[in-house]
Design goal:
- It is a single chain.
- The protein has a single domain (7-313), classed as 3-Layer(aba) Sandwich (Rossmann fold), CATH 3.40.50.
- The chain has eleven helices and nine strands.
- It has helices at 7-10, 23-36, 101-104, 151-167, 183-194, 211-217, 223-232, 237-244, 249-254, 273-282, 302-313, and strands at residues 42-48, 52-60, 66-74, 80-86, 108-112, 172-181, 200-204, 260-265, 287-292.
- A nine-stranded mixed β-sheet has the order 1-2-3-5-4-6-7-8-9, with helices on both faces.
- Strand 6, helix 5 and strand 7 (200-204) form a beta-alpha-beta unit.
- The chain is globular, with a radius of gyration of 18 Å.
- The two termini are 36 Å apart.
Length: 314
C-alpha cells in the first residue's frame, strides 16, 4: 500500500508539471481538424425496457473516425440534462444493460467507448486503427515518441467530440455534465478544458496528472508502463516527458472553464493522492475536492455517484 504525502502537506502542492507554450494551439488545431471531419451522430434503437430506451451510438471522434457509445433515455423524457460518462483504463462501453445509474436518475445518459481498449474488465467495440512504434503492453506508451502520434491525443479528442455529439441530441435541455473515474476522470477534466458544451465536470481519482511524479512515486500499473518503457529507452526520458506535458491532467485542470469536482483516495497506489491534489490546486474555476482518507483507487465508489448527482443537480 502506497502512503503518499499527508493532506496537510498536499494543501499547497502544485506538482512538477510545466505548461507547454503551444499547449492551447496544439489542442485547438487538433480539435478543429477533427470537428471539420465530423458527421452527425447516428442512433440505432437496440432495446426498450419499461423505463428506458437504449440506443447504440456512433459518433465522429479523432480525424472523423467512428466511435461507439450508448445513449440511455428515460421513458417519456422530452428535455433533460445529459450526463456523459467516460470509462476507466482498459475498459469499454460494456453491455447495454450495464451502467444504468444516470438514466435511472432521470438524466439522458451517454457512455463513450474507449478506442482500442475494452478487454480488461468491460467490453469495448471501437478499434484504434493507428499503429505505433515500439511500446509496452497497454496504451500508455503507444505512440509516445510523438505528441501527434500519441494514443491519448486520439482518445482525448474522442472525449471532446463525444460531448459535441451529446449536446446535439434532441433530448438535451442544454445542460451537459461529464463524469468519470481514473482514466475517465482525466477525460472529464479534458472536456472541462477543451469543450464549449460542458456545464460541470466530475472527476474521481483522475489519473495521468503530475505524470512524472506519479511514475517516480508508484510501482503500480498503468504508470509502471511508462517506467518500464523508459527503462529500455534510456535516452528518451526527457523527450517522453516533454510529449506527456500535452496530455497531463494538471494542464487540463489549469485550463478548466467550468466548475469541477474531484475525489481522491489517500491510500491510492494506482493514482497517488499527490497527483490529484496537483490537478485540484491548479484548477482556477469553482471547485470541490472530496478526500477519502482510508480508501485507495476505489475512492468513494457509490458515494462518489451520490456526490456527483448532488453536484449536477445543485
Amino acid at each position: 500500500m502506497l502512503k503518499d504525502k499527508s493532506a496537510a502537506e498536499l494543501a499547497d502542492y502544485y506538482g512538477q508539471v510545466e505548461l507547454p507554450g503551444d499547449f492551447d494551439a496544439f489542442w485547438e488545431e487538433t480539435i478543429a481538424q477533427s470537428r471539420a471531419k465530423a458527421q452527425p451522430p447516428v442512433l440505432e434503437l437496440v432495446e426498450q425496457t419499461p423505463v428506458l430506451d437504449i440506443f447504440d451510438l456512433t459518433f465522429s471522434g479523432f480525424d472523423g473516425e467512428p466511435i461507439k457509445g450508448w445513449v440511455r433515455v428515460p421513458k417519456g423524457v422530452d428535455k433533460a440534462a445529459v450526463v456523459v460518462s467516460y470509462v476507466g483504463y482498459n475498459g469499454g462501453r460494456g453491455h447495454w444493460l450495464e451502467n444504468l445509474t444516470w438514466a435511472s436518475l432521470g438524466f439522458v445518459s451517454v457512455q463513450m467507448d474507449s478506442r482500442g481498449q475494452g478487454s480488461g474488465w468491460s467490453l469495448g467495440d471501437t478499434p484504434d486503427p493507428h499503429g505505433s512504434g515500439p511500446q509496452i503492453p497497454g496504451v500508455m506508451t503507444k505512440g509516445i515518441s510523438s505528441r501527434e502520434d500519441y494514443y491519448y491525443r486520439r482518445l482525448l479528442t474522442d472525449a471532446v467530440l463525444c460531448a459535441d455529439a451529446a449536446a446535439s441530441l434532441k433530448w438535451s435541455n442544454g445542460l451537459l455534465f461529464t463524469v468519470g473515474d481514473s482514466q475517465g476522470g482525466l477525460m472529464s477534466l479534458t472536456a472541462a478544458a477543451l469543450s464549449d458544451k460542458v456545464t460541470r465536470s466530475f472527476a474521481a481519482v483522475p489519473y495521468m496528472c503530475d505524470i512524472r511524479h506519479a511514475v517516480e512515486t508508484t510501482e503500480d500499473r498503468p504508470f509502471a508502463e511508462i517506467s518500464d518503457y523508459l527503462g529500455v529507452h534510456r535516452t528518451e526520458v526527457e523527450a517522453v516527458y516533454k510529449v506527456l506535458g500535452y496530455f497531463d491532467g494538471v494542464n487540463f485542470a489549469r485550463k478548466a472553464k467550468v466548475p469541477v469536482f474531484m475525489t481522491v483516495g489517500m491510500e491510492d497506489s494506482v493514482v497517488p493522492a499527490s497527483t490529484v491534489f496537483a490537478a485540484y490546486n491548479n484548477c482556477p474555476t469553482r471547485k470541490r475536492l472530496q478526500v477519502w482518507t482510508h480508501n485507495g483507487h476505489e475512492s468513494g465508489e457509490i458515494y462518489d455517484v451520490v456526490l456527483a448527482r448532488e453536484f449536477f443537480e445543485a
